[in-house]
Amino acid sequence: MLRGELYVYDDPELLADHRRGRLLVERFNATRVTEDEERRGILEDLLGRFGARSEIRPPFQCDYGHLIEVGERTFINYGAVILDTARVTIGDECQIASNVQLLTATHPLEADLRRAFWERGEPITIADGVWLGGGAIVCPGVTVGENTVVGAGAVVVKDLPAGVLAVGNPARPIRDL
Description:
By secondary structure, the chain is of the alpha/beta class. The chain has one domain: Hexapeptide repeat proteins (UDP N-Acetylglucosamine Acyltransferase, domain 1). It has helices spanning about 10-30, 35-45, 110-115, and strands at about 5-10, 50, 55, 60, 70, 75, 80-85, 90, 95, 100-105, 105, 120, 125, 130, 135-140, 145, 150, 155, 165, 170-175. It is globular, with a radius of gyration of 16 Å.
């Protein structure tokens, strides 16, 4: 899975790993607003890295958790979905608005492979200082460059350079910042 090769999602080892992640996500999403320390502890158990002074607001969804790294002082708002069948790296001091989706999962174009439930993942990298606007979608294999802003509702299908404002579907840079 981590090498970007095809795999079948119902491999027993993957299912056990997925179950662990989903149970921690369920616990996290059931916490109360006053339970900051418990929330942080769950996220530290779930994620591969959860930087100092970072925050994720529930509800939050992911597959495995341990493939996600969140830098320091990063804020992820309500309703984030991170499908982490490959590594997801989120830098320091990022702002991720409500209902953003980071989707590493992809499927073969060949119908016979898809119908046999083969899939694979491609990593996503969100560099330091990025702001992803509400409802933005980042597709498999994409890197968003440092200090870039992605507008609300944008669909990012290709890498974005550092220091630009990108909008639309597909997202494209419209000006330098």
